[in-house]
Amino acid sequence: MITKQVRYEALVKALHGDLYRYAYWLCHEKQVAEDLVQETFLRAWRALDSLKDEKAAKSWLITILRRENARRFERKRFDMGEFDEASITDNQSLSNEQNIENAWLREKIAQLPAEYSEPLVLQVLGGFSGEDIASILNLNKNTVMTRLFRARNQLKEALEAEPEKRGLYNG
Questions:
Q1: What digits encode the pLDDT tens for the residues 81-99?
Q2: How far apart are CA 24 and CA 103, in angstroms?
Q3: Residue 26: pLDDT above 90?
Q4: Per residue in 140-157, is it b (16+ CB within 10 Å) or e — as a string?
Q5: CB neighbours (10 Å) of residue 167?
């Protein structure tokens, strides 16, 4: 029989990167994202026996992470003027043009209302299906699919409004 420690280590190894990327998207701060992931895995360790289906582990952990992020605001009020928005840049594998396009796309996604950006990021960054996103966000699948459709349309309209960015989708 697989021990709790082995199950836990397998979860951490398999999903740490995905959780970190999602946490970073939520808070835009490296240290806070690392803390969120650490707290998520701590809570996961405590509740690991409640995870019955290993296939649901990613959704389960994302849900824990989202709740942990919400707790952060219950504990402390931030003066948003103190913080600069950080960005992760991989200067070695992307061209300067690609970095500019990626920054533009991140900016446009960030400008979307949360009801559209969150499902889009879960799908694109997290690789979740519409059903998974519906479960994570506690929404109807049709609602999620509509929000994904509208998010993409808003990005497409932003792209059409700025013709110099057309290279983004010609790939």
A1: 444 444 444 445 556 666 6
A2: 15
A3: no
A4: eeeebbebbebbeebbee
A5: 12
